[in-house]
Amino acid sequence: MSTTTSLFAPPASDYPLDPTYAHRHASAVVTVTGPDGAPLADADVVVEQTNHAFTFGNIGFELIDYINDYEHGASDMATTRPGRELVDADRKYDAAFAEKWLALHNAATLPFYWGRFEPEEGRPRTQEYLRAARWFAERGVALKGHPLVWHTVQPQWLLGKPVDEVERLQRQRIRRDVGDFAGLVDTWDAINEVVIMPVFTAEENGITPLARVKGRVEMIRLAFEEARAVNPSVKLLLNDFDMSTAYECLIEAVLEAGIEIDYLGLQSHQHQGYWGLEKTQRILDRFARYNLPIHFTETTLLSGEIMPDHIVDLNDWQVTAEQWPSTPEGEARQADELEEFVRTLVAHPLVEAFIYWGLGDRGMWLNAPGGLLRRDGTAKPAYDRYLGLVKDEWWVAPHTVRTSATGEVTIEGFRGTYRVTAPDGRATEVTLA
């Protein structure tokens, strides 16, 4: 008897959690020189961290209107996210929101839902989104587009078209948007929630019939191949909320079909209660066996009442924000859960990204109290706790280091970028990788 394991990694036990985060640390020796190029001996230089290699991200949806100064009127978020209209009229709130957003995150997910990005055929919101993408990029924020293919939030004008025409338009859409945003958005959720795509019945759409004809694997091939055809350096995720063996079987089929997955996307909306340490570790063990970098692409933790267990589709829970408030007890619980969850992910060697799904309670999906800011924009304990991890415990603050007799200094810390500034003000960036 023989077994074949060529596609996948060794057993998951080869990826134990490391609470010391040793795998996140690196060091480098830098030689500081003077204006004449000679080593600068016995001089005081300032070393400071400027970014993390690990992705600490959030959605950038709420900031698109603010960035565009409502130049084109309210964006898609205003009419599709309950409560968003309250934000549109409050520039002071938006400015404070943006400041808190940038203080914590180094990556943003932008909403390329086809039905909202191109509500009228042939008239995509390209310029509005390019403006937003440039705003983030100018502030050192990496960008991801979400998603290129999905069966939900589809354009109404796609309904009634023959399947082959839908496929042509879907392929055209991928090439257009990946090409238009190349250099700004070079990471994409290529296709979203494929496990249920061919059997989705909650709303009529043009993509589910196409998925029934082509099958799951070929839908994934379509998304990945079209994106790479126009941007060969693009990084692509397979993303899903289904943490069952159905997703594992799909991943195996995709890899066996020779489709290259850059990152494995795992959603973790925890509206019905925190996963807990044991479940989180179990999920990490199961999906680590593919030896793929893992992104936790969509995470929500509540600071109020937990959604009832009997709800199967989270979208079926329809309440107002007033009916689902954040509470002091819930906020304390959320802070503890978020800290444990983030520490667990950072401790795993294959996890490269953690993306929270909404900074504030205003406009939060399902009106849930899932943000890290209250509806008035003030920070919940979870925001402060999370910020303390990212920009304090796991961050190297500006400090003075004296060069050796040969002009050398050693930089140590979490992997990422650092600035070294000489006494005369000259500075250079160093990457610990």
TrEMBL record:
GO terms for biological process: xylan catabolic process. It comes from the Bacteria. The keyword tRNA-binding does not apply. GO terms for molecular function: endo-1,4-beta-xylanase activity. It catalyses: Endohydrolysis of (1->4)-beta-D-xylosidic linkages in xylans. Residues 74-389 form the GH10 domain. Its EC number is 3.2.1.8. It is an enzyme of class 3 (hydrolase). It comes from Xylanimonas cellulosilytica (strain DSM 15894 / JCM 12276 / CECT 5975 / KCTC 9989 / LMG 20990 / NBRC 107835 / XIL07). The keyword Zinc does not apply. Belongs to the glycosyl hydrolase 10 (cellulase F) family. Keywords: Carbohydrate metabolism, Glycosidase, Hydrolase, Polysaccharide degradation, Signal, Xylan degradation. Pfam families: Glyco_hydro_10 (PF00331). This is Beta-xylanase.
